[in-house]
Design goal:
By secondary structure, the protein is mostly beta strands. About 0% of the residues lie in helices and about 60% in strands. The chain has one helix and ten strands; from the N terminus they run αββββββββββ. A hairpin with a 7-residue loop joins strand 2 and strand 3 (about 55-65). The mean pLDDT is about 95. It catalyses: peroxynitrite = nitrate. Pfam families: THAP4_heme-bd (PF08768). This is THAP4-like heme-binding domain-containing protein.
Length: about 160
Amino acid sequence: MDSNKDSQPVLHPAVAPLSYLLGTWRGQGEGGYPTIRSFSYGEELHFSHPPNKPVIGYTQKTWKLSSGEPMHAESGYWHPKPDGTIEVVIAQSTGLVEVQKGTYSTNEKVIQLQSEIVGNASKVKEIRRCFQLVDGNLCYDVQMATHTITLQPHLKATLKKL
């Protein structure tokens, strides 16, 4: 006989503080930048955890609200450490890659990330991301700097867990 205990995947201790992320989140966001027109989008994030591994898998996709046409997608891996630091690698559908480092707060449910490397980008110099759980919603904002424009707000969204 299988017991409940045997059928439950084992959550790695390094992932446990961020286990609230696991699952699928969907909502809407807004984007803009000094060099582009402002826009709105639909978005879905998915966080997964391979049992017994100290990693969270991450996928993201966005679409135009008016037509459902795909816009942007990215995927990667989040590596939380027991000391409250985190390393994240992301590959974007545009060909850009990010290696980010940052911190997370278990009590405040905040994750702050800053790019260490932005690869294959002709214009982007720096990316910062902040995720926060607010009243059960996952909210985030992304700031970006280019070689000609200092760090500016770029994206923000509020997502509900499905």
